[in-house]
UniProtKB/TrEMBL annotation, chain A:
Localisation: Endomembrane system; Membrane
Organism annotation: Pseudoramibacter porci
Spans through the membrane: 30-52, 64-86, 92-109, 121-144, 164-188, 219-238, 244-271, 283-311, 323-343, 350-369, 375-392, 413-434, 454-473, 499-519, 539-564, 620-637
Annotated InterPro entries: CPA3_Na-H_Antiporter_A, ND/Mrp_TM, Proton_antipo_N
Keywords: Membrane, Transmembrane, Transmembrane helix
Name of this chain's protein: NADH-quinone oxidoreductase subunit L
UniProtKB/TrEMBL annotation, chain B:
Subcellular location: Membrane
Membrane topology term: Multi-pass membrane protein
Chain ranges passing through the membrane: 6-25, 66-84, 90-110, 131-152, 158-175, 207-228, 234-254, 266-288
Protein name: NADH-quinone oxidoreductase subunit H
Entry GO CC: plasma membrane
Keywords: Membrane, Transmembrane, Transmembrane helix
Protein origin, superkingdom: Bacteria
């Protein structure tokens, strides 16, 4: 399992090298090489594992010094966080780093003798995560090379710290691999904290007041989750003497009381990482960061770490209070975030809220904890990672080209920057339209919720799908609307890296949609067998095949219509403006007799929705639910 | 298999006839309610035939027509899924994709009246979608399958188990059939504040295509209504026709006796109704299962 160790260590070792390379060109080249190497290693790991019959692999019994290295890593991290907290006058937050580190250190040095645990654990779920990180993650890093070039051309006010930026990106990649490949919770805790700190560092990249404030908000929320994780680990270590994640899960599945508190605490930690209500604000704030970090950390990979954790715990969820808590918070977040997204004009804010919303659905799936819901959740995760990463990169490129990421400014983008508009169109279609992947997953989540008599989730999905459809569709409409600025010729200033990454994403997304039945049979079904022991078809093969037929139709019909109508004879007229057109479709004559430009705007219902207030109330509600449920869980055990 | 082919063929061939006749009936009854004689029963067919004979009138390039054709074809396709006895949720999802193409048809023109109406069309979609999805869930809970053919092969009359879902569905039918008080995006009469709403920029042959698509949609929706009644007994088919006609008459009555509301009111009322009728019905179904 040298490949697995390579995947974890190599990015961590490359990170300081990135920092030390001063020249942009050289760093770019090194980034490509390392990225390619990482992606290849991820594929190689997958191949090795598949060649071994897709069995669970536990390997590498670490020497004592490695465990001490991990502990040392925790302490270094806590020191860095403490220094930064005091530097920016937010000393209190450092407690959230010091206390858990001290607890973990105490457990390891003074606590009971812990059982020997293999370091590396490879199964279907971790391979899936590795592929997402190794392919999507690396593509985003490649995209970042071109993007950051353009970013600093447009934002001359910020200090150019690209070397630092790429260092953190690689640090993060290594930590993510470590997180999904580790078995021991002590290791998982370290990598968890590293991802939190990377996110914090990237959000604060520009060092503006807003960025710093948002970075610290993200930091304390994630560290709070980390603290819960640490408390859970210490409790588990003292009570059972075994801190392997898998043994905790089997205790939970067996319904042992000892596992209840650690599972609840780890689930809580996962909720903070997945930016569920009441912790969603950190993800909103994270959008001040440069786009690649939003795409990589705050949409495609890091927030998925929370989901990954919940999927791991899912078999222990059904019928427990923790499961109820998780599915309630997830469903609620799905619905509320999708309503708030309606009122946003900032494209990145819409993407952030939609990420929170979709993560909510995945969380809810995990909370129900049945094979069908995990099937849906896995596909949601997969499709969301691809579509959202595509959209983030596209919005970033659009911002570099037009200087704005306001959706209103994307009016008629199809005529101005067709390349970007088409990619955006594909990405949005993948997010919600029938019959693409996300919708199929939503469909099976709905079915599973009905089968499990979870009425609240059924209602959340029914209403949440409607609101989700609304904000995506009006965005799509903006892109294709006849432009009142079609006269302006613009160039999309895309670097080849960006085009490459976007193209691969778009192709990947369409391929995933068409291959869905195959992936389901060959990969997701065995994953569920591994997780639950038994498994029955979620959507029968006949439905899945019907689905592929439908996909082909839905693609073919607009294409054929385009071809057919292209040569039709048409009588072109001016559009109807009550007879006050000023010669063309772009202007009209106002009451004073002057020519005025038409300006068309979407509905946002800002008065009606008031996102800030709604967010506050939702936070209060969700926090109340969390506190009460956790008290019930802990009180039930003590 | 043969049943499926007959279902699809019947839908493709007959739906426009039935839809057109119902449209004519609608005009006739509405006229009588308003104390007029009204046009002949076949007037909608005369209209469409005349419109088809004309050239296409549009405001921008051919993409407008392309979107409209996609709307028609996807609408027919979703109806085919339904009348072939396939999965009802899939059919509903394709139906909403079809509706999006109507939105695109309107918004792509960049014409002011058309664009506002397009946004309202979207609000309408958001308003009625929960009730439609919940109706599918209701069928699934009562019959154990999402397949239309499975649903009509069950022993009971669905409406006895799903009265709340039925009420919610009839409620949103007013929106889907573009009847007052919920005809906020376009109505069948050009007396709207948005002129003719989403159809404002559809000239001549485009308008004919739109009308035919609407006929297909109405038949599909009424088929959905019939699903609440039909099982394997012969009388259930008679009952279905009676229920469909009653619902259709009810919609005409509501149309002629109410004034258009603002879209906010439409959204609030409909969602409240969906939650109350369908939600409570769902809760009861889950409890007695």
């Amino acid at each position: 399992m040298g490949v697995a160790i390579f995947l974890v260590c190599f990015p961590l070792l490359v990170a300081p090298v990135m920092y030390l390379i001063p020249n942009d060109k050289v760093r770019g080249r090194v980034t490509y090489a390392c990225g390619a190497l990482i992606a290849a290693a991820a594929l190689c790991l997958t191949a090795c594992w598949a060649a071994g019959g897709m069995q669970v692999i536990e390997a590498y019994d670490p020497a004592a010094w490695v465990d001490h290295l991990i502990l040392a890593g925790e302490i270094v991290l806590a020191v860095i966080v403490t220094i930064l907290c005091f530097k920016y006058h937010r000393g209190v937050i450092s407690l959230l780093a010091i206390v858990p580190t001290a607890m973990i250190a105490f457990l390891e040095l003074r606590g009971p003798k812990l059982a020997e645990v293999n370091a590396i654990y490879v199964d279907h779920l971790s391979i899936l995560m590795c592929l997402i990180i190794g392919i999507i993650g690396v593509l985003i890093v490649v995209y970042a090379v071109g993007y950051m070039e353009g970013y600093h051309e447009h934002h001359t006010g910020f200090v150019n710290r690209k070397n630092y930026f790429f260092m953190v990106l690689f640090l993060f990649l290594g930590a993510m691999f470590g997180f999904v490949l580790s078995l021991s919770l002590l290791w998982i805790d370290l990598f968890w904290e590293i991802t939190s700190v990377c996110s914090f560092l990237l959000i604060g990249y520009t060092k503006t007041d807003e960025a710093i404030a948002n970075a610290f908000r993200a930091l304390w929320m994630n560290l709070l989750g980390g603290t819960a994780l640490a408390v859970g680990i210490v409790y588990l270590g003292y009570r059972t003497g075994n801190v392997a994640l898998q043994s905790l899960i089997s205790l939970g599945v067996a319904g042992r009381v000892i596992a209840v508190i650690p599972i609840a605490l780890i689930a809580f930690a996962a909720l903070t990482k997945a930016a569920q209500l009441p912790f969603s604000t950190w993800l909103m704030g994270a959008m001040v960061a440069p786009t690649p970090s939003s795409a990589l950390l705050h949409s495609a990979t890091m927030v998925k770490a929370g989901i990954y954790m919940l999927f791991r715990l899912a078999p222990a969820m059904p019928g427990t209070t923790t499961g109820m808590m998780v599915s309630l918070v997830g469903g609620f977040t799905f619905f509320m975030a999708s309503i708030m997204a309606i009122s946003q004009r900032d494209a990145k804010k819409v993407l952030a809220l939609s990420t929170i919303s979709n993560l909510g659905l995945m969380v809810a799936c995990a909370g129900v904890g049945r094979p069908e819901t995990i099937w849906a959740g896995i596909f949601l995760m997969l499709f969301h990672a691809v579509s959202k990463s595509l959209l983030f990169q596209d919005v970033g490129a659009t911002e570099n080209a037009t200087g704005s990421r306001n959706i209103e400014d994307m009016h008629g983008l199809m005529y101005r920057l067709p390349r970007l508009a088409i990619f955006m169109f594909v990405g949005i279609a993948g997010m919600y339209l029938a019959p693409f992947g996300m919708l199929i997953s939503k469909w099976s989540a709905l079915k599973a919720a009905v089968d499990n008599n979870n009425i609240i989730l059924v209602l959340f999905i029914a209403f949440g799908s409607a609101t989700t459809g609304f904000y995506w569709t009006k965005w799509m409409g903006k892109l294709i609307a006849f432009s009142h600025r079609s006269g302006q010729k613009e160039s999309d200033h895309m670097f080849p890296e960006e085009v490459l990454s976007l193209t691969v994403h778009a192709v990947l997304m369409i391929a995933l949609c068409v291959l869905l039945p195959l992936i389901s049979k060959a990969y997701v079904d065995p994953l569920l067998v591994e997780m639950f022991g038994t498994y029955t078809d979620v959507l029968s093969t006949s439905i899945l095949i019907m689905l592929v037929v439908t996909i082909c139709f839905v693609f073919a019909i607009p294409m054929l219509s385009m071809v057919y109508t292209r040569n039709l004879k048409m009588n072109m007229k001016l559009s109807y403006m009550s007879g006050i057109n000023a010669g063309n479709n772009k202007r009209f004559i106002d009451a004073m007799g002057d020519k005025k430009k038409i300006w068309l705007v979407n509905y946002y219902f800002e008065d009606f929705i008031q996102a800030d207030r709604m967010m506050r109330y939702s936070q209060i509600f969700a926090a109340a639910v969390l506190i009460i449920m956790i008290c019930v869980v802990i009180g039930g055990v003590l | 298999m043969i049943e499926k082919i007959i279902g699809v063929a019947a839908y493709i061939l007959l739906a426009q006839l039935v839809g057109g006749l119902l449209d004519g009936l609608d005009r006739k009854i509405s006229a009588r309610m308003q104390g007029r004689v009204g046009p002949p029963l076949l007037q909608p067919f005369y209209d469409v035939r005349k419109l088809f004979a004309k050239q296409i009138v549009g405001v921008i390039n051919s993409s407008q027509a392309a979107m409209l054709y996609s709307y028609l074809l996807l609408m027919v396709f979703s109806g085919c899924i339904f009348f072939a006895g396939n999965d009802i949720l899939m059919s509903v999802f394709v139906l909403s994709t079809a509706s999006l193409f109507l939105y695109f048809t309107a918004v792509i023109t960049g014409s002011p009246y058309n664009s506002i109406a397009a946004s309202r069309e979207l609000i309408q979609i958001m308003t009625y979608e929960p009730a439609v999805i919940l109706a599918c869930v209701g069928f699934y809970m009562a019959s154990g399958t999402f397949n239309v053919s499975g649903i009509i092969h069950s022993d009971m009359v669905m409406i006895t188990r799903l009265p709340g879902f039925f009420i919610a569905f009839v409620f949103i039918l007013t929106i889907k059939m573009r009847k007052s008080p919920f005809d906020v995006s376009t109505s069948h009469h050009a007396h709207q504040e948005l002129v003719k709403g989403v159809t404002t920029e559809m000239g001549a042959r485009n308008l004919a295509i739109y009308t035919v698509a609407e006929w297909y949609e109405v038949v599909y929706l009424l088929g959905f209504v019939a699903l609440f009644v039909i099982n394997q007994q012969w009388w259930s088919f008679v009952l279905a026709v009676v229920v469909i006609l009653a619902v259709y008459f009810l919609e005409i009555l509501i149309d002629n006796s109410s004034a258009r509301v603002k879209y906010g009111a439409m959204l609030k009322w409909t969602w409240a109704m969906t939650l109350l009728a369908a939600g409570v019905n769902l809760l009861i179904l889950m409890l007695i299962r």
